Amino acid sequence: MPAIGRKTRGVALGAALFLLAGAAPAWADIVPGGGGASEGGVSGGSGDDGTINASAGAVVYDRSKNGSGQSAGPVTSASDWTPPACYYAPAFTPDQLKAELEPIWEAGSTGPEWDAQQRDRYVNGKPYKDFNKEKEGEGYWWDGFVADGRIGDPGALDCQEPNFWVDTGDDPPADVPQAITPEMLAQLAYAELRVPSTEVKLAPEVETKVNLPTWAWLDGATFKPVSVTASVPLLGMTATTTAEPVSLRIEPGTADARLHPASGECALADGSIGERYAKGKADRTPPCGVTYLRSSGDGTFPLQATLTWKISWTGTGVNDEQPLPDGSFGAEQPVTVREIQAVNR
Question: Pairing between strand 337-338 and 208-209?
Fold first, then answer.
């Protein structure tokens, strides 16, 4: 029977139950099977302000430096790459794995042949004996976990290896590519990043006119770097993934418009994107903006503003920033464009 199917609490169901759990113990109490909602899994911590939360199993996230607000959202990778949907991490002590598996075998619902194979693997020395009890305190049984929000994704089924033992301080088996590493932690943290909405400031603000340059800008005070730290306390492993805004792309919502600059890409400069409009700049071309060439009639044009974020990480054993794929996050806002009314004298 496939591992993902027989792990009634260790993978998909365990992940779902853990995410639905309420309060959890402090970091100092994190031990395999230490009272988390995923029985036999690793429980996690939550601060009074709710900024430190546990994911499915061993990974704990610190989101205190993340973007906030109702309009904040996740970045979309600029490439085909996506963060991992599942991973392997420490999950059980010998006694906890025994308590997890023996009731399944005794129930007989998995069939005598499969149960016998499992007993051979974990009890009869092929290759483990008596759940590795002689190594109590010297390592952990590792299990597969589904990343937050990824249950149902095709990649969530990639972690079907049966539980395997890893001694404390040793690397996991090289033939298990989904075993947790600092880089994988950084990738999991990537999926947890939240950046603020990219609704730009416009001048004129309420409505603009045909052939009148509309200035657009984002204040640097609002658009600053955000980060999420992911860790596995049992392994003393951490990684921090940071997103920094680098450029804004404007799409005017109609082909009858002229962009400033012509590419529609407004670069970050001196901590801001674009330039705030001020009195006396009416005759200038904005460094970031759009000139509409026709009226929006009785409606509006859907201006799309998409911010590109440069994303990198550092973590255990890594001193220099390492790149991850750029991310983007956009927002749509309506723009009313009116004809300039001629005055007859």
Answer: parallel
